[in-house]
Design a protein that fits this description.
With about 525 residues, the protein is of the alpha/beta class. The chain has helices spanning about 10-20, 35-45, 60-70, 85-95, 110-150, 155-170, 195-210, 235-250, 265-280, 280-285, 310-320, 325-340, 345-365, 375-380, 390-410, 415-425, 430-440, 445-455, 460-475, 480-485, 495-505, 510-515; strands spanning about 1-5, 30, 50-55, 75-80, 100-105, 185-190, 215-220, 225-230, 255-260, 290. The chain folds into 4 domains: about 1-125, Rossmann fold; about 165-295, Alpha-Beta Plaits (2-Layer Sandwich); about 300-410, no CATH class; about 410-515, Arc Repressor Mutant, subunit A (Orthogonal Bundle), CATH 1.10.10. The longest helix has about 40 residues, at about 110-150. It is found in: Cytoplasm.
Length: about 525
């Protein structure tokens, strides 16, 4: 904060400059002025916050100087010093906007108090202005958010305020509410700062605000810009240049999506919607660059359901309880999807959700009646935020943890693990020796404990599980009976049909036609 001393008496000037330690008070002392005229000449450039002036000087007096200063810098605090204890002078000074009126005979501490009072007044004004600016910025942000998302066609006052803001920032160039003015919407996201990531968005926003005729709206992980269209400045080459400058200056990665040029408010909304649509492809188009609708219009969507082979791979990994293998598998599947040239955000989300559903299905198959089924429904779903591979891994890791935690709490955990293994391998021959080997238990001991825990012999249990799966496939799919037989581990169709009829009382075709009794 700067202070200027004005007095035509050199002894007074020098005394005021040297007797008081202005720096200690947090004030920068400007070179003293020997007249009001000199002060007025310097004030526009030096912009003092506080002026300490004599009231009677040759030429212009202190009261007139105070009036002139208030015209140039209205927020300047002025303290009058005089050798005359004259009430009329004091009244004139206070009417002229003077903060304080002191006699030159005042002690240094009284002058210090007056300066500190002026300093506090300025700080209070700054804080008030800061709060007003924050409030105004928040209101403008709300206004722009409404205009882009819902439109302002039913609110004349809001539309007028919005275009006043546009004109003030060069987005509109006339007073006709921007009709016919070419504008477009740009969405920008910056990454690359490990620490102070939030500050990066703000720094990029400030840079582009200085470089382009625009207004901005800060969002959670990106910011929105409404830019006046101008060839060579805000066309695609011009925006590329501005974004490149941000990249080089801030040492960051910049991804941006651009909506089409608009000539009215409804067109601006459409430009924003298009920019949002393109922005959703951020993980698919690459980490950086400027993209438009043309870059995504040929994408028809990749597959949205994981394959039977992938579901089998996932089941094997979840059964092994190997977090490293699970992370590698998820990363591979996500990366493959993101690199698919046909992929869209919706198709990728559908595919990743199908992986999560496959994980849930595995847990339901692997879980037994003794386990708390409420835990299954409490599992988190994909939230759609953050890196997709981390989201999928988080959910699948939770599924894997629930299953194996349940095993550790059970005396015969290996039986539950064996049941899960059986249910995952019903499509192929699975002998008792094979399953006992999987859980590292002697086959004879395994057979004995298995019957005691499940109430069935090993063969009875496997056949029962095969038939449960077969009835489900007969009811819920249109697969051929031969395909269903193979799906549940039977190569001999006649034998499968016999087993099916034995367990349900009907042949597969009759069961499908009549449904369950």
């Amino acid at each position: 904060m700067r202070i200027l001393i004005v007095d035509d008496e050199v002894i007074i000037r020098t005394g005021l400059c040297t007797v008081i330690d202005w720096k200690e008070l947090g004030l920068e002392l400007l070179p003293a002025a020997s007249s009001a005229e000199e002060a007025l000449e310097r004030i526009p450039q030096e912009k003092p916050h506080i002026v300490l002036t004599d009231i009677r000087m040759s030429g212009m007096d202190g009261i007139e100087l105070a009036r002139e200063i208030k015209l140039i810098l209205p927020d300047t605090e002025i303290v009058i010093l005089t050798g005359y204890d004259d009430f009329n002078y004091a009244q004139q000074a206070l009417r002229g906007g003077v903060t304080d009126y002191l006699l030159k005979t005042s002690r240094p501490e009284e002058i210090i108090k007056a300066a500190l009072k002026a300093q506090q007044n300025i700080m209070d004004k700054w804080e008030s202005m800061k709060q007003d600016n924050l409030q105004q910025a928040a209101l403008r942000s709300q206004l722009l958010d409404r205009a882009l998302n819902r439109g302002l066609h039913d609110d004349e006052e809001a539309r007028t305020q919005l275009h006043h803001w546009f004109r003030k920032n060069g987005v509109d160039s006339s007073a006709d509410e921007g009709v016919g003015i070419a504008r477009q919407v740009l969405l920008v996201s910056c990454s690359g700062w490990v620490t102070f990531a939030n500050l990066l968005q703000g720094a990029a926003e400030n840079m582009l605000y200085e470089l382009l005729p625009c207004v901005t709206l800060m969002q959670k992980d990106h910011f929105v810009m409404v830019v006046r269209y101008e060839v060579g400045v805000t066309d695609v080459p011009g925006l590329h240049k501005a974004l490149q400058r941000v990249t080089e200056t801030l040492k960051c990665t910049v991804f941006a999506s651009l909506g089409p040029v608009a000539y009215d408010d409804e067109g601006l909304r459409a430009s924003y919607c298009t920019a949002k649509e393109v922005f959703a492809y951020q993980g698919l188009l690459g980490p950086s660059g400027l993209y438009t609708l043309q870059d995504i219009q040929d994408r028809s969507g990749s597959r949205t359901v994981c394959s039977e082979k992938e579901e089998t791979e996932l089941a094997a990994i979840l059964m092994k309880d190997n977090a490293t293998d699970l992370r590698h598998w998820v990363n591979l599947k996500v990366r493959t999807q993101l690199e698919d040239a046909a992929a869209t955000p919706m198709s990728v989300q559908g595919y990743l959700q199908s992986i999560v559903v496959a994980g849930h299905r595995w847990l339901e198959r692997a879980s037994t009646a003794e386990q708390d089924q409420s835990v299954l429904s409490a599992l988190s779903k994909l939230e759609g935020e953050g890196r997709p591979e981390e989201e999928v891994f988080k959910v699948l890791s939770g599924i894997m943890g629930i299953f194996h935690q349940g095993l550790h709490q059970n005396k015969y955990a290996y039986i539950h693990k064996a049941i899960a293994y059986i249910r995952d391998n019903l499509h192929q021959p699975i002998s008792l020796q094979q399953v006992a080997g999987f859980v590292h238990i002697n086959p004879n001991h395994f057979s004995e404990v298995f019957k005691r825990e499940t109430g069935y012999t090993y063969l009875e249990f496997v056949t029962r599980e095969r038939m449960k799966l077969a009835t489900d496939l007969v009811q819920s799919t249109q697969l051929k009976v031969s395909d269903i037989a193979r799906r549940v581990g039977y190569e001999d169709i006649k034998y499968f049909t016999g087993q099916f009829k034995k367990h349900t009382g009907r042949a597969p075709s009759e069961y499908r036609q009549g449904g369950k009794d």
